């Protein structure tokens, strides 16, 4: 049972924008950095965003991250068919059950 | 560039121990900047962190798996390994190894499917 909650799915037409929320608590998102991962079908996850809003080299600026309180958001603008994938948030949880935690995952569909 | 590759049996019998190795190439596992982790993904489900290790051997594990997990490192071979004991069908998953830096898993292996079945 993940401690980070994401919507199961979001969809939009090509060229449009989608946002994916990741809801947690003070023991995880509220006091730790958030990262975001893209998992294309049949492949390993790929880091999109780290430290809440930083992009690794090679990740286009169509992808953006933000954090406010105990929630984080991933935004994708100029949606492309190649963006159709599962997206996961991740962070550290500092509770008694301390450790790395991932979100429930969100399927992005390009209509 | 740095690459990670998982290896190990694709089929494990119930109650036995799952053993996997992650080989790091293109860089040193002994860098003081990184932790190295194992993450798994059951078919059709989300990601679950199993545990992580520092090159010195310091480890931290998912509390829900801690009693069954051992992660170790062999710096001479540039490898780190996972052992998961007393496996059941619920441990059937794709197992990934990954590098953690600075606060995210930035490089992942391609993953290896492990099925628990008699």
Tally of strands of chain A: 9
Most extensive interface, residues per chain? A-B, 25 and 23 residues
Give the fraction of residues assigned to helices of chain B: under 10%
Q: Rg of chain B to the nearest angstrom?
A: 13 Å
Number of helical elements of chain B: 0
Beta fraction of chain B: over 45%
Number of helices of chain A: 0
Average pLDDT reading of chain B: 96
* Category by helix and strand content of chain B: mainly beta
Profile the largest sheet of chain B.
Answer: 7 strands, mixed
Structural class of chain A: mainly beta
SSE order of chain B, as H and E? EEEEEEEEEEE
Quick one: how many beta strands of chain B? 11
Tell me about the largest β-sheet of chain A. 6 strands, mixed
Regions of chain A with pLDDT < 50 over 5+ consecutive residues?
A: none
Structure, described:
The complex is a heterodimer of chains A (111) and B (118). Chain A has 111 residues and is mainly β. Chain A has strands spanning 9-12, 18-23, 35-39, 46-49, 63-68, 71-76, 85-93, 99-102, 106-110. In chain A, the strands form two sheets. In chain A, strands 1, 3, 4, 7, 8 and 9 form a six-stranded mixed β-sheet that branches. Chain A has a three-stranded antiparallel β-sheet with strand order 2-6-5, with no helix packed on it. Chain A is globular, with a radius of gyration of 13 Å. Chain B is globular, with a radius of gyration of 13 Å. In chain B, a hairpin with a 4-residue loop joins β5 and β6 (59-61). Chain B is an all-beta fold and 118 residues long. In chain B, the strands form two sheets. In chain B, strands 2, 4, 5, 6, 9, 10 and 11 form a seven-stranded mixed β-sheet that branches. Chain B has a four-stranded antiparallel β-sheet with strand order 1-3-8-7, with no helix packed on it. Chain B has strands at 3-7, 11-12, 18-25, 35-41, 48-54, 59-61, 69-74, 79-84, 93-100, 105-108, 112-116. The chains are: A mainly beta (111), B mainly beta (118). The interface between A and B is medium-sized, with 25 and 23 residues.
